[in-house]
Amino acid sequence: MSNFDVFFDYIQKLSGIMLSEDDKRVFTAHLKPKKLRKRQYFLQEGDVCKYTGFIVKGSARTFRVDEKGHEHILKLSLEDWWLADFESYYHLTPSRYNIEALEDLELLQITNAQVEEFLSPIPAFVAMQEVIKQNYAIANQNRLQAAISYTAEERYDDLVTNYPQFLQRFPLNMIASYLGLSPETLSRIRKNALKS
Amino acid sequence: MSNFDVFFDYIQKLSGIMLSEDDKRVFTAHLKPKKLRKRQYFLQEGDVCKYTGFIVKGSARTFRVDEKGHEHILKLSLEDWWLADFESYYHLTPSRYNIEALEDLELLQITNAQVEEFLSPIPAFVAMQEVIKQNYAIANQNRLQAAISYTAEERYDDLVTNYPQFLQRFPLNMIASYLGLSPETLSRIRKNALKS
DNA sequence: CGTCTATTTGAATGTACTCAAAAGCGGTGG
DNA sequence: CCACCGCTTTTGAGTACATTCAAATAGACG
Questions:
Q1: CB contact, 8 Å: A162 with chain B?
Q2: Is the C-beta atom of B193 closer than 7 angstroms to strand D?
Q3: What domain range is B14 assigned to?
Q4: Which end of chain B, N or C, is more open, meaning fewer C-beta atoms within 10 Å of its C-beta?
Q5: Tens place of pLDDT for every residue, chain A, 196 residues?
Q6: Predicted local confidence at residue B3, as pLDDT
Q7: Residues A74, B145: contact at Cβ < 8 Å?
Q8: Which of residues 123-162 of A touch strand D (CB under 7 A)?
Q9: Local confidence band at B196 (pLDDT 50, 70, 90 cut-offs)
Q10: Can you name the residues that pair with B77 across neighbouring β-strands?
Q11: pLDDT recorded at residue A162
């Protein structure tokens, strides 16, 4: 199955609308396949995030570096997600974030201008966008809720329940940063969790 | 200026599209004015959030009660925001949140089904929704970033800078909960801030 | 096998929390 | 108009949880 077939499946499933051959030709004409090797950067702090990329294969992290030089992971991304700093992407402002491939990445990427011009006329694409934005808003709200009112241990349990695949795919120090914890604290939480 | 005029101004400004008299008639026909007194609930935990309400006047808080009986404020809302638990609203599932008026509220409310049927054909409304969802996603991402990687003091400074109106309108114990802090800690942070 | 990185463990520190109580403030009724 | 009541905010003391720093162990990769 080609990269585009993966994408066609995804959009049809999410939108509930079948794509015509014409639709598919529009996508193949404008979505640009791109490969990144592990540790390569999709976006660097200070640059404008011109593209959003659909992840066909691989994984990435979006992180910020604070004044003390500590990295904080805001987002971990896997297959079937769109990769971008959306603030920078929509507003075309310099990004405060870095996006780095954690595994070799295969993307289908496109600019917002191209989306507006070529993809927005396709109903399945518009419907897909709706669903994505809804899911994204809900997921963020839940994570925010967890960050504000849960203890470190509850946040970890939440991750184990809701995103078990993260533990398969990402090293623990990345998970720790994603949860807003030091690696040592996560290690101790996991040790305790074994007992119960 | 009537409640609807406030809304018409808002939607025209956000969408960049003028409303026709026909458009306005659709809105007045389907957006239902609703008043809530201070301390009344717009939504109770366990209920489905059937309506979203445009806030013409007043303020509200969205909060969760944990097992220990502690309240955690997820969102503080003022004029020109839409009030709802969007997870419950879109999926029609029971909500985990309560939404309570902190000041007398004047709303224009509507169900998602009505939006789909009557409002979605109006281009200005669709454009407005786009902008709102984008802003909401960006704001949530920034807050998440702050919650994960900022200290309590940095989060407070952030609020002072980005949402100074919150300090005018909400009591400090609400602000504390919104920042994920105990009221005592916020009090001490503010005392320290005076020195510098 | 050796090097580099990730993970775990230990000890000391720090930040924010809890509990308790005092002070401040606003509204209400006498 | 003032006294009282309820609620918010502040202050103090002790505690808990997570962090930092340092070092040891374990794993992955060439």
A1: no
A2: no
A3: 3-124
A4: C
A5: 688 999 999 999 999 999 999 999 999 999 999 999 999 999 999 999 999 999 999 999 999 998 888 899 999 999 999 999 999 999 999 999 999 999 999 999 999 999 999 999 999 999 999 899 889 889 989 999 998 889 999 999 999 999 999 999 999 999 999 999 999 999 999 998 765 5
A6: 83
A7: yes
A8: 151-153
A9: low
A10: B60
A11: 93
Token readout for B88 is: 């419950």
Q: Is B152 on the interface with A (CB under 8 A)?
A: no
Q: Quick check: A184 CB within 7 A of strand D?
A: yes
Nearest to A3, CA basis, from A53, A56, A52: A56
Please report, as a single letter, which amino acid is at residue A131. V
Q: Is the dihedral of CA B11, B12, B17, B21 positive or negative?
A: positive
Assigned token pair, A11: 């959009």
SS3 A72: strand
Residue A177 in domain: no
Which residue(s) pair with A64 in the sheet? Answer: A72
* Residues 6+ away with beta carbon under 8 Å from A130: none
Q: What is the CATH classification number for the domain harbouring B52? A: 2.60.120.10
Sheet of strand B105-111: strand arrangement: B32-36, B105-111, B51-57, B82-83
Would A41 be classed as within a structural domain? yes
| A97 falls within a domain | yes
Cα first-last separation, chain B = 44
CA distance B148 to B158: 14
Which residues share a beta bridge with A54? A82, A108
| Alpha-carbon dihedral sign for residues B48, B54, B60, B64 | positive
Whether B84 is in a domain gets the answer yes
Q: Which residue is nearest to nucleotide D10 (CA to C1')?
A: B187
- pLDDT given for residue A168 in this prediction: 94
Domain count within chain B: 1
